[in-house]
Amino acid sequence: MKGSERVRLVVVALVATVLAYFSLLAAPDVGVGAAGPLGVVSRDKWFHAAGYAALGLALAAAFRRRSAVGTAALAAGGAVAYGVGMELLQGPLSARTLDPLDATANAAGAVLAAACWWAIGRRRSAAPPSSQS
Fold first, then answer.
1. What is d(CA 100, CA 85) in angstroms, rounded to the nearest whole number?
2. Cβ distance 62 to 8 under 8 Å?
3. Segment 3-14, tens digit of pLDDT
């Protein structure tokens, strides 16, 4: 394993650990106001989406494949599965609740990040090679 691959895996582990900490150990909704940006969705859902977007991007970077769509699918699937797992683990905790809307926000962030990865990868592969003179 190359050093850069190891670094990417460490980043995945760090992001996953931070998400697990805030999902399972930190006091629920500390410092989280009721309304988020645009006043439509609560701020905690934005935090969920952002956290799982970060995990999705970290997974995509760590497990790059030749195909951008394959990388995006792997990243989205892994981040969504982790998010669902975190929600299921919250169910039996007295200070937490299993919230399907949190799981939806997790999945939305993960899928959005994977879609961005795919779009950028697709654009790069479609671009003509640059000629250096």
1. 12
2. yes
3. 788 999 999 999
Q: Which two tokens stand for residue 102?
A: 């949190």
pLDDT at residue 109 in the model? 97
68, pLDDT greater than 60: yes
CB 103 within 8 A of CB 52: no
Instruction: Indicate the pTM of the whole model.
Output: 0.84
Kindly report, residue by residue over 7-44, the tens digit of the pLDDT: 999 999 999 999 999 999 887 665 566 666 666 677 88
Residue 72 to residue 116: CA distance in whole angstroms: 8
Helix, strand, coil percentages in the chain from 3-state DSSP, rounded to 5 = 70, 0, 25
Of residues 119, 127, 106, the one with CA closest to residue 54: 106
CA distance 10 to 2: 13
- Contacts of 62-67 with C-beta under 8 Å, sequence gap 24+, read 62/5, 62/8, 62/9, 62/11, 62/12
Calpha distance 61→29 (Å, rounded): 30
